[in-house]
Design a protein that fits this description.
Strand content: over 45%
Shape: globular
Distance between the termini: 44 Å
Largest sheet: 4 strands, antiparallel
Protein name: DUF5050 domain-containing protein
Radius of gyration: 21 Å
CATH architecture of one domain: Beta Barrel
Helix content: under 10%
Organism: Clostridium yunnanense
Keywords: Membrane, Transmembrane, Transmembrane helix
Pfam families: DUF5050
InterPro entries: LRP1-like_beta_prop (IPR032485)
Low-confidence stretches: 1-70
CATH topology of one domain: Thrombin, subunit H
Strand order of the largest sheet: 3-4-5-6
């Protein structure tokens, strides 16, 4: 099979989600207030333009001038895509939100259908915004030494953009999922189904594992993933099989050493989303192609055994994140046609220790990608809602300080 089978599988999944969630996306309000432009001194006689992004939050407690317009970031040591604040769950969800002291970077490209520059704000992500116009449609964001590493959602290219000079560098023209570990970039090359690595400058390109899949039903792009955990490379794929009249699919997760040796299949099942937390893989198992019912499954990497923790009659395909022993998700419950989507949506969490589910917020208007940093949850809707036209919804993990940011 060729790439068209992967596309067919993706279309089936998308149609299934649309059919049950009945979410329609509309254009942004044409009467949206214009962004106010300011000019700041950058270097000697050069200036750059920055724009405010409005929100319905109260005015920031700090002065606008406190946000350094000549953005400089300081860091030290070896760099990794996952650290004490930027979690693996956030990265596997697309890496649209990234913290780099003292700023929070957010890419609205998951929400907006047109070119959307990367924005940054103070740490809470709800106060003051500025745009980095040189970085657009970014996902899988990493911030290192005043450079933004990212994939553009419009092309399969790995980019590096200098925040100060706005210089853009193409590190890899053919790049699937990538991950930074100890100052090395590991990535899947779709052109030859291999895993490669290179330096942060794109030098010393080395093939770690070639010919990952002799089964050409697999096309190593999204929804594939790649990450490193306990000095092992993990990557996932989706494989389609059967014929056009009975097309089926399954997910697989593999692991190998950093040098490409000891390749083994870790897990095989049907799931939309997964994350690795404290040496176990957690995922929402898809029971069939037409049902929104999900089983929460835990796979222990030490014992190689699976156990079903809970069953959910409804849960959004995009809402899934593990943070401090809690698994957060968006529950969707069928309601009358009086609701905009036909569903009553709740932000909920499942405690991995007590195995109890509780509600964080009843204010969710649509499902989306979820990110959690510094005890604050960010939900970037997949498409702009006609009710609020907001870029994302934010709430503390205890349910306080709910905000819609426009």
């Amino acid at each position: 099979m060729k790439k068209r089978f992967f596309i067919s599988a993706a279309i089936i999944l998308i149609i299934s989600v649309i059919a049950f969630f009945s979410i329609s996306y509309k254009s942004l309000d044409n009467d949206k207030s214009k962004n106010q432009t300011t000019k700041d001194q950058v270097t000697k006689n050069k200036t750059q333009e920055t724009k405010n992004t409005s929100s319905n939050t109260s005015a920031p407690t700090t002065a606008v001038e406190s946000l350094n317009t000549k953005l400089k970031l300081t860091d030290s040591g070896l760099h990794n895509s996952v650290d004490d604040i930027n979690s693996l769950s956030n990265y596997l969800n697309g890496g649209f939100v990234r913290y780099s002291n003292p700023f929070l970077f957010i890419s609205p490209s998951v929400t907006l259908s047109y070119d959307s520059p990367l924005v940054y704000s103070m740490e809470d992500g709800t106060t003051f915004f500025k745009q980095l116009s040189s970085v657009s449609n970014a996902s899988s964001i990493n911030i290192i030494n005043n450079n933004v590493y990212y994939k553009s959602s419009s092309i399969s290219t790995l980019m590096k953009t200098n925040i100060s000079t706005h210089e853009n560098t193409i590190l890899a023209n053919q790049c699937g999922p990538y991950y930074i570990y100890n100052d090395w970039i590991y990535f899947i090359s779709p052109s030859d189904c291999s895993i490669k690595k290179m330096t942060l400058n794109g030098d010393s390109l080395t093939t770690i594992k070639s010919d990952l899949s002799k089964d050409k039903n697999w096309y190593p792009e999204d929804p594939s993933t790649l990450f490193i955990y306990n000095n092992k490379i993990y990557y996932s794929d989706m494989v389609t099989y059967g014929d056009e009249h009975n097309l089926k699919w399954k997910n697989e997760i593999y692991s190998m050493n950093l040098d490409g040796t000891d390749l083994e299949k870790v897990l095989e099942d049907r799931f939309f989303l997964f994350s690795l937390y404290e040496n176990s893989i957690y995922y929402l198992k898809t029971l069939d192609d037409t049902s929104i019912n999900r089983d929460l499954v835990k796979f222990d990497l030490s014992t190689k055994k699976s156990s079903t923790l809970s069953s959910f009659s409804s849960s959004a395909a995009e809402g899934f994140n593990i943070y401090n022993n809690d698994l957060y998700f968006i529950g969707m419950y069928p309601q009358s046609s009086s609701t905009p989507t036909g569903f009553d949506m709740k932000l909920e969490k499942y405690n991995l220790n007590t195995k109890k589910t509780s509600t964080i917020s009843n204010s969710i208007t649509t499902f989306g990608k979820m990110f959690i940093l510094n005890d604050r949850i960010f939900i970037l809707p997949v498409g702009v809602t006609d009710k609020n036209s907001y870029l994302y919804y934010s709430v503390k993990t205890d349910g306080s300080e709910q905000k819609y940011v426009k």
